[in-house]
């Protein structure tokens, strides 16, 4: 019989490194510029603005950027002219209002700087109104019922607190202006607007609280640094996998003989092609002013991580989006696909994102405990506010990271559990226990020196607490690390939630102290009483043990902590009365805005799994079943010939039985999946999403189970898609 091209083999052949897929980082290639010259060269940053703007305009703009004062609209014209001149010098031909719709990605619509002069020539033009406001056709961005398509208007509004930048492609460059995006009724349709509102709320409440400690602060800002995990896989493989193309994850694939058991990849030396690629990613990010700093191999084969130095939350969120975009784009120049999905491969570790979060005034980080935290009442106050916020809003934090991709990680034995708890470390836990038991803390356990037992090695100071990789929310010295985010998600909403709920706790604790003072207590006493009171209610959220253990699940239940296992369990909490009130009180999201987000998140869950279900059915029907049947046909021909010549071929008969049984199973499972795909589950988006969870996911699992067992017995040259073995280990 005729055999089709075994596409797996030409993929493997194509993967062989060739000069063309080596994007210029090869030894001997021209050396890039020194970092200091490169850093920020594509950013319209403060230095550039100072040099180019009239003095008065620059000063006015600075009060907005640095002190959070309202924007003086009179300066927009001067900024527009300076920005245009700068961008054109940089080779930009177009500008775009760059925004972050609720898809979690970024969006842009380009306009050129050209204005025809009527005599057949043109000049470049860009004025204040073009800088300040844009009107993209908003009808196809998700709005969760906030904007019917017949009233499709949406506006983008310049965010002067995040600098404009130049994006370069092979074909040219354009100016990107960070903007907020709202409906024409003023409702936020994006990630940035609520983030900015939450930053403002945290600023106001924290400055108020700082007065209790005699500190007069100009500005308080949340700070964020996001660690990004991702996979790099040769794109020859990904092109041959409809599941990776459509869903960003493999829907099929048997466990390879070599997974991550060897642990030899983690922190191992970075393969050369990958290092080249990362170097270029870093250069591009430096030029965009993104301070990426660390890079290393992650636990799974083919998995890596990159992290920046932290920045103010708004800039950090913009920069995180740029990081994801740059990773994806640059990877392709090296013949690699960057997979940002939370779980591209079953059976090996998935990818997360760690959101490191703190808040600081111009006087310093408010979560810096110092050497003797028990004496640092201001630190204890703000740290308590975070703990209190997490305890009260476990549900909201859980909902802020809930999406179909993250369901593969949370609660599985590799990622934080879906129970939100805080790792605080021994020292601080002890301080809080003292406060709880005695009303105040009188000592901080010290950790001393790490002696390595070799005279020539340096003596290292030991950190007061060990790390805990199993906690979803860990105190790591002078910041909290929210470790349960999905690798593909924007950090904006989780950061918005954190800012808002901490603002609320700071507000309520400050009021409690003020009330106690009014009732006659002195300030120190009042603060101490509030802390002692708060510890009692938030202590149940503190857990320093192994978050992956079954005992923790049982204990958390005893403590009354929530365990919202999946997206569909978590999302309803987003719109609870408690949470709507919190968002409303601090002016972060109105009830309608919150409800629209809920609807969009549910809809995204539905679409994601719907696409996976359809793709799995297609692949099973048109790729995997045919491969198995071809094999069966070969076996049957062999058996027939054997019978003709009168030889007994027991092995062949046995194989036929096995393959045939699996073909039956795959056939039935595929029929079932096709049938479920045709169902909708109901008219409403909630019912459709529920159908995905209850029916499509299990149906896909059955198809996969049969297909993965077939992969193990169908001849290698008949199996039509690259295997885990190929994708994870060929670098
Ligand atoms: P770790 O080894 O604890 O994960 P690092 O010190 O390398 O820590 O920090 C991890 C991330 O946390 C980095 O992106 C870093 O910039 C960020 N980070 C450090 N301090 C703060 C802070 N005060 N606020 C927010 N993020 C911070
Ligand atoms: Mg970390």
Describe this protein's structure:
Helix 7 (192-212) runs parallel beside helix 15, helix 14 crosses helix 16 and helix 20 (591-645) packs parallel to helix 22 (685-711). A hairpin with a 5-residue loop joins strand 3 (114-116) and strand 4 (122-124). The chain has 731 residues and is α+β, with helices and mostly antiparallel strands. It binds adenosine-5'-diphosphate (ADP) and magnesium ion. Residues 223-225, 227, 307-310, 356-358, 365, 476, 478-479 line the site of adenosine-5'-diphosphate (ADP).
Question: Helices, strands, pairings?
Answer:
Blueprint: H1 7-15, H2 35-38, H3 46-52, H4 55-67, H5 76-89, E1 92-98, E2 110-112, E3 114-116, E4 122-124, H6 128-132, E5 133-134, E6 154-158, E7 165-169, E8 172-183, H7 192-212, E9 220-234, H8 235-239, H9 242-247, H10 272-287, E10 292-297, E11 303-308, E12 311-312, H11 313-333, E13 336-339, E14 352-361, E15 364-365, H12 377-392, H13 394-400, E16 422-423, H14 426-438, E17 449-450, E18 460-461, E19 473-475, E20 480-486, H15 492-518, H16 523-538, H17 550-559, H18 567-570, H19 577-585, H20 591-645, H21 650-678, H22 685-711, H23 724-729
Parallel strand pairs: 1-8, 16-19
Antiparallel strand pairs: 1-2, 3-4, 5-6, 6-8, 7-8, 9-11, 9-12, 9-13, 9-14, 10-11, 14-15, 14-20, 17-18, 19-20
Helix pairs in contact: 7-15, 10-11, 12-15, 12-16, 14-16, 15-16, 20-21, 20-22, 21-22
Bound molecules: adenosine-5'-diphosphate and magnesium ion (MG).
